[in-house]
């Protein structure tokens, strides 16, 4: 069942469940955010996730290499992933210890071990090798970690409950948490996602550690993951939608193509109180930043509603209300609810 907890870091607590916006230190819209021409994502959320590959070899690397937080006016927790997914796409092989040292130099509050995400249609023999490499990389990082203030999360992969059991059995004790990857290519198969994520949640809970989910946070999964007691999750959707000039509808939570509809619905977020559709449609980075922050506002508003409903013990009522405009929310949450009932697991961890 859902629960409220806190993850303690060197730059503050993360009250969970929490949504971490994915951010980068590249060009364009990120220059706008770093210069605070538009309110940046990290000012709005409790914590932020940065991809290591979007820090390395950028013009900002030198500014953050001895302390990520120096670049920002707000001191909030920063989760730095390993860049494994981007490395895979670029065909780059990284040394897990070099990645760890880079994360430590950045003074990340939370870091994920270097991993080998599994794409679709991989041969079984190659698939098992990739899982074994991710496990070896995680255990190696744990043995060589030097910075005590940095929480180290082991990445987790697997596509059946049995594989998740096997994966956790191979991980050393001592990780501060776990982070589940390789899910994005399978994001439309919500039943499999819920099955394996909940299995990983059971293992993390048994070890008294939080679980993070990479990259599958559309609104139905945002609700289902929160119901399952997942502590943190991340989303890049708010920004990707802005690239395509898509405005997240504050009521239906669906992406609206503004150029197609010729209008946007009413919204009371601080961006929409000041700007309108024409301000979002411009071709430069500032209009994109406005639109991205509107979209993020909707994600964070939903996360706040979820937290409030969990604390007041009326999460099911919220799901029923939301499902009137987005039926998929109830469909996905109902499956998660049945799944949890079958497992007969109740838990509430208050502090990590």
From TrEMBL:
Q: Pfam families, per this entry? A: TGT
Q: Name one GO cellular component term.
A: cytoplasm
Q: Which GO terms describe its molecular function?
A: glycosyltransferase activity
Annotated keywords = Glycosyltransferase, Transferase, tRNA processing
UniProt key word Ribosomal protein:
no
Q: What is its EC number?
A: 2.4.2.48
The GO biological-process annotations, alphabetized, read as: tRNA wobble guanine modification
InterPro entries found in the cross-reference section:
ArchSynthase1/Queuine_TRR, TGT-like_sf, tRNA_ribo_trans-like
Q: Where is the tRNA-guanine(15) transglycosylase-like domain?
A: 4-321
Q: Which residues cross the membrane?
A: none
Task: Tell me which NCBIfam families the record gives.
Answer: tgt_general (TIGR00449)
Listed name of the protein: tRNA-guanine(15) transglycosylase
Q: Which gene encodes it?
A: tgtA_1
